[in-house]
Specification:
Number of domains: 2
Order of helices and strands: HHHHHHHH
Low-confidence stretches: none
Distance between the termini: 33 Å
Shape: elongated
Radius of gyration: 22 Å
Mean pLDDT: 84
Number of helices: 8
Helix content: 55-70%
Number of strands: 0
């Protein structure tokens, strides 16, 4: 959200719109950064006020510019889901920082190796990086899992699974 709004702020024709939106988004994140100094009720009240300001601003006086129109349409359609972190702060983070950190290694790998050039290669890469990320997140030894997968393959056994069962938390 911030990147798109920052993109609008310096453009001719969208400058006032982008700056207005950016102001409200920055105020919202200032509140997020001082969340520990607020009561839960006070934080929620302020965040809902910020949400209302952003939603109102994104819909009003939309410049006749493709990027501004797309942003406005997206907020019209999905705006409420952009603020779910207000209602469920323990489940949903206000930023995508964790997700960006999760894929950082993959992005660096792709930059260094120039990626793969086939659908088969892409599929193998996706599976490998998914296994690495899942093992890391669940605290599993990646090499032990890969070793077990190879042994199962060589013995004609079903591969080990990383899917959590109902018994696991």
């Amino acid at each position: 959200m911030i990147r798109e709004i920052k993109f609008l702020a310096p453009l001719n024709g969208t400058q006032a719109y982008g700056k207005r939106l950016l102001k409200y988004v920055k105020e919202m994140f200032a509140t997020i950064h001082r969340q520990d100094t607020l009561t839960e009720r006070g934080f929620k009240r302020l965040m809902n006020r910020h949400k209302k300001s952003i939603m109102k601003t994104v819909r009003r006086f939309v410049p006749a510019h493709k990027k501004a129109e797309v942003l406005s349409e997206r907020f019209e359609k999905y705006g409420e889901s952009s603020f779910l972190f207000i209602e469920q702060p323990s489940l949903i983070e206000s930023t995508n920082n964790v997700a960006e950190r999760e894929i950082r290694t993959l992005v660096l790998d792709r930059m260094v190796t120039q990626g793969v050039r086939s659908d088969v290669g892409n599929k193998r890469h996706e599976r490998f990086w998914t296994v690495l990320a899942t093992c890391k997140r669940r605290g599993l030894n990646v090499m032990a899992f890969l070793r077990k997968a190879i042994v199962c393959l060589l013995r004609g056994l079903p591969p080990p699974s990383l899917i959590k069962t109902n018994n696991e938390k």
